[in-house]
Write a structure and sequence with these properties.
Carbamate kinase, 35% helix, alpha/beta, disordered C terminus, globular, eight-stranded mixed sheet, six-stranded antiparallel sheet, 415 residues
């Protein structure tokens, strides 16, 4: 007997027929002799509907009350699934995150999981029940409902799997696995049978929307085997697990695109120590994360600093920079919105030369300008104009022949 955690996204529980279909999948896993815990998202579109209601009644709604409101979406899905399972003759019980002891810290709408008390889940499993838990939410030390941010149900599921020491966590969604690129951009993109935690974490962070990056962090830290698969087919999907020797032979795993980016340029700063620290401390004080950073000496003997961030943080960051521009003796601040980060990811890159040359040549030879570059051992990211994103994704994918073979070799990058 195994303990398996299922997670179903909003499209999987979008209506009553789909909830009944999910119930059948859960029962099939239970009938194989497994204990089953199910984590559910809100029905497709429901969270957006609730957020819109909040902003209609109050243009600046209190974050605590927003969490109170949007958490109800998952409760509806959980209760309906429990009712569907009961109608099929199976014992099932639904819980909120708070009821199973998912304790959080941090601010509302961006809370982080501190700990999970799994005893109530184990108690119901010992009684033979299928346990259903609302994703996306927990409670803080004061008993207030908190939410984990968009996509937080993935994180809830993996955290629960880690707390239960589950044998497998299956993420059911509307796609049948992890691909070498977004199939909507690259028709030749290939589904991966397996991928390492490290590569999946990079891909999720860099724009692959199949999993929330925090869920992959949990899976890596607690060695939780993950499988991403479709709710609507029997395809086995993609297994996300610890690195293996087979994975090491792969140079490039995939190409990702991170949209909704912006760039801020702080112009003609004095070239003296401490200036960058003042800029990024001001940004950090606003609880804003920056991504790519470039510092260059300009033609006037000063320094320009450019950095990227999520476009949702642009207004606050721009206002912050304008407020301190005199303090740092800058000549001005400019903003660019039409930018996208495209990245290649692969654990084999750290031991293989020529990948960067292949990426830059693929873009340059197709007239695509690179505005910023950042690298790590397993990824290369380039900031490009948004209008070039589809073309750029395809030419990089083609250059490394990701759709044609099980591995992408370095000599292909140098060809």
């Amino acid at each position: 007997m195994a303990l398996i955690v299922h997670k179903y996204g909003g499209t999987s529980v979008a209506n009553l027929d789909k909830i009944r279909h999910v119930a059948q999948r859960v029962v099939a896993t239970k009938d194989q002799g497994n204990d089953v815990v199910v984590v559910v998202s809100a029905m497709a579109g429901e969270t957006d509907r609730l957020i819109n209601l909040a902003y209609e009644i109050n243009p600046d709604p209190p974050a605590r009350e927003v969490d109170m409101l949007v958490s109800t979406g998952e409760q509806v899905s959980a209760a309906l699934l429990a009712m569907a399972l009961s109608a099929m003759g199976h014992r099932a019980i639904s819980f909120t995150g708070g009821q199973v002891g998912m304790f959080t810290v941090g601010v509302h709408r961006k809370a982080k999981i501190r700990e999970i008390s799994a005893e109530r889940i184990f108690e119901k499993l010992r009684e033979g029940a299928i346990v259903i838990v609302t994703g996306f939410q927990g409670v803080d030390i004061h008993g207030n409902i908190t939410t984990l941010g968009r996509g937080g149900s993935d994180t809830s599921a993996v955290a629960i799997a880690a707390a239960l020491k589950a044998d497998l966590c299956e993420i059911y969604t509307d796609v049948d696995g992890v691909y070498t690129a977004d199939p909507r951009l690259v028709p030749s993109a290939r589904k991966l049978d397996t991928i390492s935690h490290d590569s999946m974490l990079e891909m999720a962070t860099l724009g692959a929307k199949v999993l929330q990056s925090r869920s992959v962090e949990f899976a890596k830290k607690y060695r939780v085997p993950l499988r991403v698969r479709s709710t609507f087919s029997d395809d086995p999907g993609t297994l996300i697990t610890e690195e293996t020797d087979t994975m090491e032979r792969t140079t490039i795993t995939g190409v990702t695109v991170l949209r909704d980016q912006a760039r801020i340029n702080v112009l003609d700063l004095p070239n003296v120590p401490g200036i960058a620290a003042k800029i990024f401390k001001a940004i950090a004080d606003e609880n804003i994360n920056v991504d790519m950073i470039v510092l260059t000496e300009n033609n006037y003997g000063g320094t320009d600093i450019s950095f990227t961030l999520a476009i949702g943080d642009l207004k606050t960051a721009h206002e912050t920079m304008q407020r301190i521009v005199a303090d740092v003796s800058a000549k001005g601040v400019t903003v660019e919105k039409d930018v996208v980060k495209i990245s290649v990811v692969g654990i084999g890159m750290q031991s293989q030369p020529g990948v960067a040359a292949g990426v830059f040549d693929a873009l340059g030879s197709n007239g695509i300008n690179i505005e910023m570059i950042s690298t790590s051992e397993i990824k290369i990211s380039c900031l490009i104009k948004g209008k070039d994103v589809e073309h750029a994704t395809r030419v990089i994918h083609d250059r490394f022949k990701l759709g044609e073979a099980a591995t992408a070799k370095v000599e292909e990058a140098d060809a």
